[in-house]
Amino acid sequence: MAKIDIARRVYNHTWKLDPIVRSLLDTDFYKLLMLQMIRGMYPDVNVTFSLINRTTKVRLADEIDEGELRAQLDHARTLRFSKKEMIWLAGNTFYGRKQIFEPDFLDWLSNFRLPEYELSKRDGQYELEFHGPWSYTTLWEIPALSIINELRSRAALKSFGPFALDVLYARAKAKLWAKTERLKQLPGLLVSDFGTRRRHSFLWQRWCVEALKEGIGDAFTGTSNVLLAMDTDVEALGTNAHELPMVLAALANSDDELRASPYQVLKDWQRYYGGNLLIVLPDAFGTASFLRDAPDWVAGWTGFRPDSAPPIEAGEKVMNWWREKGVDPRKKLLIFSDGLDTETIEETWRHFNGKVRMSFGWGTNLTNDFDGCAPMPAPGLKAISLVCKVTRVNGRPAVKLSDNPAKATGDLSEIERYLRVFGDEARVEHEVVV
Amino acid sequence: MAKIDIARRVYNHTWKLDPIVRSLLDTDFYKLLMLQMIRGMYPDVNVTFSLINRTTKVRLADEIDEGELRAQLDHARTLRFSKKEMIWLAGNTFYGRKQIFEPDFLDWLSNFRLPEYELSKRDGQYELEFHGPWSYTTLWEIPALSIINELRSRAALKSFGPFALDVLYARAKAKLWAKTERLKQLPGLLVSDFGTRRRHSFLWQRWCVEALKEGIGDAFTGTSNVLLAMDTDVEALGTNAHELPMVLAALANSDDELRASPYQVLKDWQRYYGGNLLIVLPDAFGTASFLRDAPDWVAGWTGFRPDSAPPIEAGEKVMNWWREKGVDPRKKLLIFSDGLDTETIEETWRHFNGKVRMSFGWGTNLTNDFDGCAPMPAPGLKAISLVCKVTRVNGRPAVKLSDNPAKATGDLSEIERYLRVFGDEARVEHEVVV
């Protein structure tokens, strides 16, 4: 072929949009698992998801053009699950189980589209909210986040010339490869990609997933990104998220119901899933209170995912609790997923190796680490702590306490009520970077 | 990005092979339908497939390098159906029917690999044969043909500079687009791609399929290529081929069994398939004799695919036969698939419009028409009549008579026996171009 494909070039001239999200499968696997349960058990609950930028010094509304943001969100609303994708969801084996999604759920999913959004600007930030039935608004979380994060990368790269871009990606590739070389020194290590929501870009996440597949081999257990799992033939991974206890807590009609809600989540969950999907996420209202009040049967679940306390401290607490319940931690699984990078993975692995089964869900520092890669200052390439959280449930405010007060969300008065019910034991503030 | 991706360029320098066939789904759909029946009913029959170049003036062994041919055939033997492909075969709807492939067949298919081949040269031609159980050798037909055809295109293009290549594809695209503009003038026309085996190249076939999808819209009913059907989300099409009557005829132990064999094929077929898959291929031993001896129930099948007589003449004969059986041809389907191009499609459509349902399986002149496109003489780009046919069945010679003696294959003495049993009625020689 000639060096320049004229038809392609002219086509590119008339591009209206380079869509960031091109498939409804470009989301985290646990959203689909949760969605099946939400639709089955809570079809009438209304839930608002809201964008929250914890890195307030970054003024997103100044960095990202509102027209571009609306065009990307509108494009995501045109998507449907394609025939091939529906067939794959129905036919693939997830966590060793065939037909994890029921035919009735898949029928409904085949007509799914993302609901409307509300977007405005305030103090240099975007206020982006999704109102409506939980079973619809929940699927906005991941595409909303990945769209905003990629639009921010694109804005940061607009001034880069072709060589600067080439060098940027060359360095980022070298940097990630060096991480894989360190990680493959750890025998028996298990790592997966959890980096969809805060990725630099879709293509870069795909590069990272393929690099891990080649670079660490069997130590790479899969990706949370369903589309990449399908396309690169790796496992789709993930279990459940804070939205479940947050919504059930907000639905509670008394302090007693509120106190019981974290365990109600687990009861609901095990109606749908078993085996390695029985992973407790204990920190929505503080891990200490969760363990203190947990019924004995919780120790029968496969494992825990501590997500906001420092991993060694959090893991030790869970292991002590298992021992108190007469359970051998070596038969149990800890999944670490909070702000991991090579150092924390190494340190945590060394600490727990031989004492407990463990795996690592590696997120932002896998798919969006460009620190030191740009040949010129580019603050817009530094990942920020952006989340999309449940804020209202049937008109009531929703709350997350977390083990780290810097990760708490919700109305202050409501947070105080939750602290009264659950206690404030062992919650320690740590800087939230991503 | 910089204009030249150095990593990609260096990777290309070390390419050992640009595989032509990269997936076992890169075959014709009817091979999989037939395979399910072959494995179910004739698991112990040994069948040899042999390459036959009817365009003898083209000396394939001079045009195509033997090392390259072996490398491509060897690569095809490394392929397995991938997990995603198996899930799609199990979950997709074919001809309106779910689970057309039985779980037991799919289990077996998931371990399928192409058997060994025998390759030698003789008189400037390749002798390429596949020996073994029918349920294995049958899947070699399409990849063997598409490999040889694409190697021939590649050889022809080796001397082309970048501009000559650019102009070649520009003209070929313009030429195909002009065909779509003519075809979309015919209201209610139905056309599908049957051009896998003799395509110019895989990428060009994909371009043709996507061009038809955009160019003639609903008039494009799908492709025989299973991989392209999956990837471009169109219907996978095709029913059955001459190998079924040829093998059953060769297995016949008497002239009476031989005479009955074309109808035995249909009885076998309807144990597995129904509806629009009940398409009679009548010409293996001459359409006239087939119709003369056909039981009445054959008129209950959905349609016929005349494949070697001129389409109008062949279609009229089948329609007369339907009328004799008291069947209204307007409720029946004719599928034309022999050496079609725009003119024959238009002429045939005009002749039969309103008299019978019809559709067109467009092959070589869709996916390998570069006549007048090269800016320099390139005889190697002209498609040839290359087939891969059953030649021996459990040690006995196999025969095809066809409506066109130029398409007959088999030992001369055996052809004479078949002519004695079936008769030579209405068989007329026509030049075979592709």
Automatic annotation (TrEMBL), chains A, B:
Top-level taxon: Bacteria
Chain's role: Catalyzes the synthesis of beta-nicotinate D-ribonucleotide from nicotinate and 5-phospho-D-ribose 1-phosphate at the expense of ATP.
Catalytic activity from the UniProt record: 5-phospho-alpha-D-ribose 1-diphosphate + nicotinate + ATP + H2O = nicotinate beta-D-ribonucleotide + ADP + phosphate + diphosphate
Taxonomic placement: Bacteria, Pseudomonadati, Pseudomonadota, Alphaproteobacteria, Hyphomicrobiales
Residue stretches making up the Nicotinate/nicotinamide phosphoribosyltransferase domain: 191-422
Entry EC number(s): 6.3.4.21
Family membership noted in the UniProt record: Belongs to the NAPRTase family.
Residues in Nicotinate phosphoribosyltransferase N-terminal domain copies: 25-149
Protein name: Nicotinate phosphoribosyltransferase
InterPro entries attached to this UniProt entry: N/Namide_PRibTrfase (IPR041525), NAPRTase_N (IPR040727), Nic_PRibTrfase (IPR006406), Nic_PRibTrfase-Fam (IPR007229), Nicotinate_pribotase-like_C (IPR036068)
Modified residues (Phosphohistidine): H242
Phosphoprotein among keywords: yes
Post-translational modification: Transiently phosphorylated on a His residue during the reaction cycle. Phosphorylation strongly increases the affinity for substrates and increases the rate of nicotinate D-ribonucleotide production. Dephosphorylation regenerates the low-affinity form of the enzyme, leading to product release.
PANTHER family in alphabetical order: NICOTINATE PHOSPHORIBOSYLTRANSFERASE
Keywords assigned: Glycosyltransferase, Ligase, Phosphoprotein, Pyridine nucleotide biosynthesis, Transferase
Classification via Pfam families: NAPRTase, NAPRTase_N
Pathway note: Cofactor biosynthesis; NAD(+) biosynthesis; nicotinate D-ribonucleotide from nicotinate: step 1/1
